[in-house]
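Ligand: phosphoenolpyruvate. Inputs:
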Amino acid sequence: IINPSEDILKEYQVRQNIWGIEQKKLSKIKNIQSKTLNNEKIELLANIEVPGDIQSVKNNKASGIGLFRTEFLFMNRKNLPNEEEQFEIYKSVARSMKDKTVVIRTLDSGADKLTSADTTISANPALGLRAIRLCLSEPQLFNIQLRAILRASKFGKIKILIPMLSSLSELRQTKLLIERAKKSLANQKILYNNNIKIGGMIEVPAVAINAELFAQELDFLSIGTNDLIQYTLAIDRTDDRVSHLYNPLHPAILKLIDITIKAGKKYNKQVSICGEMAGDSKLTKLLLGMGLRHFSMHPSRILSVKKQVLNSNTKKLVPWSNKILKTKESETIETIIHKINQ
Ligand code: PEP
Ligand code: MG
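Predicted complex:
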């Protein structure tokens, strides 16, 4: 809000005070383990964009980093970061998280997050040469990042996450390039973790529908609900004029999340959500009832979600979630969620 009026300033000061009081209350559960009433451990991870976010990750006692959006290292600069620069950054993040997981997502630029690697902008950037598509079409650029991540994998518990997959062939090409990067490091006698885990983001409906196929070829799945909603409901997530239609509780979205969680269960692969839905504490119980056990969110959301986890019995939530999955209208879904949260 540019040049806010006195009234708006006052309103936001009130909101800030309420937020402060709430944060104080939440800080009491900071050191309590994230476990449900029936003793199930729930992993609450953090999303970061730059290494400077780590302080907040630690302050909120996240159990690791579930999403490191690396594109922010590439934005607002003329030259792209070289291998050495990227290596130092990934290494410092991995080191500061010690034995905790750090999921590094490969470059996801090209739509709402532009870098100098994006040389042309298409009429529909969200559907254009973005994320893994861009990396596969620029293998040299991708190789630099892969080598940097692999080298850093010696210094912590790093996993690789591939954004915006839309086909198995993209996944296989990516895995081939990872193998190639490993080989080039081995030839140079540079150390890396040969067992580094590779995960894929479930952001395109085609991939969610076929989640079982992807679960068989990946080590873990991470649902990017921000894009999954955009692509499933055909709503530009950056266009305010259609933001009222952007609905995480649309039955089709819940169905795609359900398919993905079940695929992970079937093939014994970890499934997390790293889109904004994971940090929305109103949805925590619904997602727990659907079987989600790994949530990755903005660090500031962790304690609110933990509060819900501590008050939940996953066994008792299953029938509620099943009922929601059978509900046809999002308005009714909202009413049921309201009841579960009471
Ligand atoms: C998502 O799409 O849900 C996601 C986590 O990725 P980003 O918001 O960076 O596109
Ligand atoms: Mg995304």
